[in-house]
From TrEMBL:
<comment type="similarity">
    <text>Belongs to the drug/metabolite transporter (DMT) superfamily. 10 TMS drug/metabolite exporter (DME) (TC 2.A.7.3) family.</text>
</comment>
<dbReference type="InterPro" id="IPR037185">
    <property type="entry name" value="EmrE-like"/>
</dbReference>
<feature type="transmembrane region" description="Helical">
    <location>
        <begin position="75"/>
        <end position="92"/>
    </location>
</feature>
<protein>
    <submittedName>
        <fullName>EamA domain-containing membrane protein RarD</fullName>
    </submittedName>
</protein>
<keyword id="KW-0812">Transmembrane</keyword>
<dbReference type="GO" id="GO:0016020">
    <property type="term" value="C:membrane"/>
</dbReference>
<feature type="transmembrane region" description="Helical">
    <location>
        <begin position="153"/>
        <end position="170"/>
    </location>
</feature>
<dbReference type="Pfam" id="PF00892">
    <property type="entry name" value="EamA"/>
</dbReference>
<feature type="transmembrane region" description="Helical">
    <location>
        <begin position="182"/>
        <end position="204"/>
    </location>
</feature>
<feature type="transmembrane region" description="Helical">
    <location>
        <begin position="104"/>
        <end position="121"/>
    </location>
</feature>
<dbReference type="InterPro" id="IPR000620">
    <property type="entry name" value="EamA_dom"/>
</dbReference>
<feature type="transmembrane region" description="Helical">
    <location>
        <begin position="239"/>
        <end position="259"/>
    </location>
</feature>
<feature type="domain" description="EamA">
    <location>
        <begin position="13"/>
        <end position="143"/>
    </location>
</feature>
<keyword id="KW-1133">Transmembrane helix</keyword>
<feature type="transmembrane region" description="Helical">
    <location>
        <begin position="210"/>
        <end position="227"/>
    </location>
</feature>
<feature type="transmembrane region" description="Helical">
    <location>
        <begin position="14"/>
        <end position="33"/>
    </location>
</feature>
<feature type="transmembrane region" description="Helical">
    <location>
        <begin position="45"/>
        <end position="63"/>
    </location>
</feature>
Amino acid sequence: MTAISEKNHPVEGVLWMLATGLAFVFVNGIVRYLGTALPAAESAFIRFAWGLLFLAPSLMPLVRTGLSPSLFKLFALRGALHTVAVMLWFYAMARITISEVTAIGYLNPIVVTIGAGLLFGEGFRPARMIAIGVAMIGALVVLRPGLRELSPGHLAQLGAAFGFGLSYLVMKRLTQLAPASVVVAVMALSVTIGLAPFAAYVWQPVSLTQVLWLGAVAVFATTGHYCMTRAFACAPMTVTQPVTFLQLVWATALGWSVFGESVDPWVILGGAIILAAVVFLTWRESRGEASKERI
């Protein structure tokens, strides 16, 4: 009964998701502002070091109990996937428009769906195949290969979307075996460790201002993840997912007003197509779960 009542606050869920979108737009804006002044691996390392500082108390249960070999392998796998994805994301964020990064990022849930079908045996029902196909069309609209040159930034963001998607798949398994707070804290620790050698290899002198800006990135990112968790607790994803389209609108507005980026209607259209596929998939999956509960 508690779970049902928690999911019955759609207005609160929408407001929490609006806050999520704003927080992540601030993350994008700050990283875009810092640009290529620092190597991607170094920027990412400093950001996650800040995050680890915030989340350190959540690691205390692990210090007392330790990790089983199977859990350690899963945490290490997720850390490796997330490390690569984060470096690619920071690289892309400094080189392509904020709206392009946001639109391509909508592919994450589609990657999760493909991975769940291939790795977890969840299968590919017609609705899932339709959603995957439509999302791929949306990605082609955003990238328009053959009609314009694809930059390394575009390819990096595609790689980041796949990396984050695979990381979320591992997280899905981990949340069944460990508390959510521990899963998040260990991710921060493992990614910080994973980024360290890459950051050391390309390390450049960093100013206090840059360190503080990257600390702000950690604050906004942590806030965004908290708000997202609250949104999912208040309302079904079929209610909250469409709100994420505003993140693309805000990202486009930020890029245009602050960084002088042109407004590309194809990117907005492609992002809308990808998000529509995600919303359709979420709606179909929720109907399937509801049918199982009635049975």
